[in-house]
UniProtKB/TrEMBL annotation, chain A:
InterPro entries: HATPase_C_sf, HATPase_dom. Residues 36-136 form the Histidine kinase/HSP90-like ATPase domain. Coiled coil: none annotated. The keyword Kinase applies. It holds the Pfam family HATPase_c. The keyword Ribonucleoprotein does not apply. This is Serine/threonine-protein kinase RsbT.
From TrEMBL, chain B:
Gene3D superfamilies: STAS domain (3.30.750.24). Pfam families: STAS. Signal peptide: none annotated. Residues 1-113 form the STAS domain. This is RsbT antagonist protein RsbS. It comes from the Bacteria.
Amino acid sequence: MIVLSSDSMPIMKELDMVVFRNRLKEFAVKIGMSLVNQTKLITAASELSRNMLRYAGGGNVLIEIVNAQRQNGLRLTFSDTGPGIPDIDKAMKDGFSTGKSLGLGLPGAKRLVSDFDIKSTVGKGTTITIIKWKNG
Amino acid sequence: MDKIPILKIGHFLMVAIQVDLYDRLALSLESDLVQAVSKTGAKGVLIDISSVSIVDSFMGRILGNIAGMSKVLDAETVIVGMQPAVAITLVELGLPLKGVQTALNVEKGMELLQKKIQFTEEEEIDDDSTLQ
């Protein structure tokens, strides 16, 4: 996979989520992603950035335009140094939440993107990488 | 802080969300609307989301909350103007907004509210006649 261009931004407060969503929209438009795919990606990104804010007190997100097999897509990497997730299998189940939410964030985000990868170490932090292909 | 204006039209309250919703704004809309329903005795709430490009699980939950809370205060809620891409995304996300009435646009939403209110008024009249 080749990285064509990238941008990184911190998400430390709620309004950063709005700025991030707008930035992501610009990237999606730049690669010509369809409106439905844009909406799915931005919604998934909204869920993951909120999780990062709520459970880890904030973190960083890397936006990359990637290319593989002649297809462009966007790769997002959310990394935080929060408490980590003790049981990832449980966290990926619909309806499971340690907070007061609906528990749709992680599993819902996974359904909305082409590729979803989560790595978490208790006490160290969590890194989630998602890819949405332009036409995927 | 931003505020979303709430308009009173006859028996109804109307809100058009024209800005990007962030969590605190959505929460303040929820409490403002529910208070407005109680203060005005409105029978219906119409929320236009045609300018909203993203509804995630948090905002979806707020919309559901508004409908539920208004119902308890004897007001019906109709959400209108959802963009097709938002509808597709919400269902895939796993949040089909069950229990929330929707209509395609403001006009149809108003019709729906009007019908609902007429229906309840008729019911009330029927109740009166049985009492006599």
